[in-house]
Structure formats: C-alpha cells, structure tokens
Amino acid sequence: MDCIFCDIVKKTKPSHIIYEDEKVLAFKDLNPRAPIHVLVTPKKHITSANELKEHDKDLIGHIFLKIAEIADKLGCKSGYKILNNCGKDGGQTVPHIHFHILAGRSLDQFPC
Ligand code: AMP
Ligand code: ZN
Questions:
Q1: Ligand 1 binding pocket includes 78 (Cβ within 6 Å)
Q2: Which of 3, 44, 63, 106 matches a 20 to 30 Å C-alpha distance to 27?
Q3: In this structure, are residues 33 and 107 in contact, taking their beta carbons and an 8 Å threshold?
Q4: Atom nearest to 84 CA in ligand 1
Q5: 110 in a domain, yes or no?
Q6: Ligand 1 touching residue 79 (CB < 6 A)
Q7: Domain span at residue 30?
C-alpha cells in the first residue's frame, strides 16, 4: 500500500521530526498554515478517525497526552488548535490518521 505518512514513519521519505516514540511520530507540516504547524500521527496505519477500533483506544489516548507534551515543548503558551480532518468532505488529503497542532498566531477565526 502506498502511503506518504507510512513512508515518513519508515524514514524512506524525509521529514522534520519533532517527537518520536514507539507508537507516535510528530513532524512539521510541509505547507504550514501557522507559525507552528506540526502533524502527530500513529506509526500504525489507520486510514482515518472513522476507521478507529476498540483496540485503538489506548493509542489515541497516548497521542493526546503526547500532543500536550509536544505543544508544551514548542512553547505554545497562549494556546493551540488540535485539528483532525476525517474523510473527503472533512478535508482529509492524506489517508493516514493525523492530528494537526497549529499555534503561534491567533486561530480563533480558523474554521471552528
Ligand atoms: P489533511 O489535509 O488533514 O489530510 O492534512 C495533510 C497535511 O499533510 C497537509 O497539511 C499537508 O501540508 C501535509 N503534508 C503532505 N505531505 C507532507 C510531507 N511529505 N511532509 C509533511 N507534511 C506533509
Ligand atoms: Zn499510512
């Protein structure tokens, strides 16, 4: 299966890694929409939030704990947005679940 984020996880495609552990990789978005724009993704391929299974509960909990740690490390002191696009109409362009961390400017006008 061809998946750009699986390639980034396997390091066959380059990325600017911000954080990594055995379950999660966080890297800078190639086309940043805010001064801080990081993508946090499980190393395991899951197509979208809509494909999550009961056994993925711990993984998603782990990701959210890491998002808070990463945001702290990046100095997102005045807040940040966590965004997940799910499916075509949700604006998802890469079909490997990921969470955007956006910060460094006021994002209160950002879609929602
Ligand atoms: P989404 O539209 O929610 O699926 O988000 C996909 C994100 O991946 C977009 O913000 C893209 O800019 C970003 N992106 C696509 N290819 C790469 C890449 N090779 N390295 C880093 N970010 C990427
Ligand atoms: Zn993948």
A1: no
A2: 106
A3: no
A4: 3
A5: no
A6: no
A7: 4-103
Task: Indicate yes or no: pTM above 0.90.
Answer: yes
Tokens of 32: 């940043």
Query: What is the predicted pLDDT for the residue at 55?
Result: 98
Determine, yes or no, domain membership for 111.
no
Per-residue pLDDT tens for 56-97?
Answer: 999 999 999 999 999 999 999 899 999 999 999 999 999 999
* Ligand 1 lined by 4 (C-beta under 6 Å): yes
**Alpha-carbon distance 45 to 85, whole Å?**
16
Regarding the beta carbon of 85 and ligand 1, being less than 6 Å apart is answered yes
Rounded to the nearest angstrom, the distance between the alpha carbon of 109 and the centre of ligand 2 is: 31
One of 37, 96, 98, 100 is an active-site residue; which one? 98
Contact assessment for residue 95 and residue 48, using Cβ atoms and an 8 Å cutoff: yes
CATH of residue 93 = 3.30.428.10
pLDDT digits (tens, 9 = 90+) for 1-49: 899 999 999 999 999 999 999 999 999 999 999 999 999 999 999 999 9
Ligand 1 geometric centre to CA of 30 (Å): 6
Active site residue 62: no
- Which strand (E) or helix (H) includes residue 50? none
Q: Which residue has the tokens 């990463």?
A: 70
